[in-house]
Amino acid sequence: MPSVLITGASRGLGLEFARQYAADGWRVFACARDPETPELRKIGGQVSRHRLDVCNGGDLSALKSELNGESVDVLINNAGVYGQPRGRGGWGDIDDEAWAQTMRVNVTAPIRVTDALIGNVEKSERKTLVYISSRMGSIAENPGGSYVYRSSKAALNSAVKGLSADLKAKGIIAVVFHPGWVRTDMGGPNATLSPTQSITGMRNVILGLTPNDTGRFINYDGTAIPW
Predict the structure, then answer these.
(1) Is it the case that residue 95 has pLDDT exceeding 60?
(2) In terms of DSSP bridges, do strands 173-178 and 47-51 run parallel, antiparallel, or are they unpaired?
(3) Helices (DSSP H) in 8-95: which residue ranges?
(4) pTM for the complete prediction?
(5) Of the candidates 130, 138, 111, 132, the residue with the CA atom closest to the CA atom of residue 186
(6) pLDDT digits (tens, 9 = 90+) for 161-181
(7) Residue 92 falls in which region: left (phi positive, over 0), alpha (psi -120 to 50) or beta
(8) Which of 117, 135, 166, 178 has the most CB atoms around its CB within 10 Å?
(9) How far apart are CA 188 and CA 138, in angstroms?
């Protein structure tokens, strides 16, 4: 039975990842700051729920112990924050602490999660690392504004590009995804995609990944995004 570990699994994209993988018979490790939400508890199948604040080293150590050496075919680093409210965080409107916290959650935390669980991924068959980023992290497509969120996703992209090279010899695949503009708490009600559409697309792409894909920045539909 293939397995997937998802951070930020209690709502939005993470919750939909958990639903779809569980429905397809995968072993799901669903991780969230509050793993006992009604929506997460409703998911049937081979699902275990784990408390994880991705910025909390104690939570991460406990999670590693709970996994007890089990293999993780696909590690999905989904947890993230926008930082400042939409429409803020641009020129002349910077909150230093919000920026620092956004970098901790969106950049440092997913790399620390990967570092802690890389042994579980390495022993699996699929050996896949997935990072949910954003097209807003593309430097080539930056029209201005939203410095806090954009810079955090650009930094995540750079870190993943580096670790993809460092882990390539181990046969590990590491990719960065833009999930599309999705109707979640972060994306808002006017977004063009439902969580089902976004996650279905990304799962199809994940299924077809090969070692030649490592280090790519990919749209939810599989098309390449410029760095």
Answers:
(1) yes
(2) unpaired
(3) 12-23, 38-41, 57-67
(4) 0.95
(5) 132
(6) 999 999 999 999 999 999 988
(7) left
(8) 178
(9) 21
Q: What residue type is 131 in one-letter code? A: Y
Q: How many CB atoms lie within 10 A of CB 102?
A: 23
Give the residue from 205, 88, 67 showing the smallest Cα distance to 149.
88
Environment class of residue 70 by beta-carbon count within 10 Å: exposed (0-12), middle (13-18) or buried (19+)?
middle
**Mean pLDDT, residues 127-137 taken together:** 97
Sign of the torsion angle spanned by Cα atoms 107, 126, 168, 210: negative
The neighbouring-strand residues paired with 47 are 28
Angle of helix 96-103 relative to helix 147-167, nearest 10 degrees, comes to 20
pLDDT of residue 187: 74
**CB-side neighbour CA atoms (13 Å) of 133:** 32
Rounded Cα gap, residues 148 and 205, in angstroms: 29
Helices (H) and strands (E) in the chain, counts: 7, 7
Q: How far is residue 106's CA from residue 125's CA, in Å, rounded to a whole number?
A: 27
Please answer whether residues 4 and 72 qualify as being in contact, where contact means their C-beta atoms are separated by less than 8 angstroms: yes
Please say whether the beta carbons of 178 and 160 come within 8 A: no
Q: What would the two tokens of residue 92 be?
A: 């002349």
Are 62 and 51 contacting, i.e. CB atoms less than 8 angstroms apart? yes
